Amino acid sequence: MTIRLLLADDQALIRAGFRMFVDPEPGIEVVGEASTGREALDLARSRHADVVLMDLRMPDMDGIEATRQIAQADDLAGVRVLVLTTFENDDNVVLALRAGASGFLGKHVEPDELVHAIHVVAAGEALLSPTATKGLISHFLNQPVPNALPAALDLAELTDREREVLTLVAYGLSNNEIADHLYLSPLTVKSHINRAMTKLGLRDRAQLVVIAYQTGLVRPGEPLP
Fold first, then answer.
1. What is the CATH code for 155-214?
2. For residues 162 and 131, is the Cβ–Cβ distance under 8 A?
3. What pLDDT was estimated at residue 203?
4. Among residues 191, 192, 141, 207, which one has the least CA distance to residue 162?
5. CATH H superfamily, domain 3-139
6. Same fold, 3-139 and 155-214
7. Are 79 and 51 in contact (CB under 8 A)?
8. For the sheet containing 103-106, what is the strand order?
């Protein structure tokens, strides 16, 4: 299946560079380019994009708001947002993930890493660069009291196994690594993750990481259980 990719960045030169990286790749088709967040939202809908490569700093509507509106639109439920930005270590990491982004990479990313990231996000997985992950942890280190959560978000709805798997997701383990850690099959791990996302009303794995820290299920600095 071909991944329909939308490029959203206010700089034409950067869009051209990304297109040069991904156009030759089998299985990826660039279906449009947007220079503003509002245009990205419109084109995601009209071009039936699977993945939006989203810059955060754009005129008219920034990338975070565009991501939020894509995530909230019922007719765009299958669209995944991969954020690319120059700034990986500030609050934009958390804001983008809370808005519904499935991945976060710096613009210095190598071409093969970018192509890999597009495939990962299109498959419904979450992807964070090491720098972005450190930024996410630092954010929670500076907020010792968990943020208020919607009343509907209750980890008590999860089974013990689902909470255990959620904890390991928040430590950055892949499905295969979680399977090895818990002596389960990767398919079983994936099922637990999907059920946890359904119960918590979350779109993807990236939001699970945020929720695990927000609720205090995982605390920065604690060793892997």
1. 1.10.10.10
2. no
3. 74
4. 192
5. Response regulator (3.40.50.2300)
6. no
7. yes
8. 28-34, 3-8, 51-54, 80-85, 103-106, 127-128
Task: Measure the CA–CA gap between 199 and 32, rounded to whole angstroms.
Answer: 34
Helical ranges in the chain per DSSP H:
12-22, 37-46, 63-72, 92-99, 111-122, 130-141, 160-170, 175-182, 186-200, 205-214
Q: At a CB cut-off of 8 Å and minimum separation 6, what does 149 contact?
A: 211, 214, 215
**Per-residue confidence in pLDDT tens, the chain, 225 aa:** 899 999 999 999 999 999 998 989 999 999 999 999 999 999 999 999 999 999 988 999 999 999 999 999 999 988 999 988 776 555 676 778 778 888 877 778 888 888 988 998 888 776 655 555 555 555 554 554 444 444 445 688 899 999 999 999 888 788 888 999 999 999 999 999 999 988 988 877 777 877 887 788 887 677 788
129, two tokens: 């660069």
Q: In this structure, what are the phi and psi dihedrals at residue 18, rounded to the nearest 5 degrees?
A: -65, -40
Counting every residue written for the chain, the total comes to 225
* Structural domain boundaries in the chain: 3-139, 155-214
**How remote is the C-alpha of 216 from its chain's centroid?**
20
Q: Which residue in the block uniquely carries the two structure tokens 């279906």?
A: 31
What pTM was computed for the model?
Answer: 0.72
Q: Assign 120 to helix, strand or coil.
A: helix
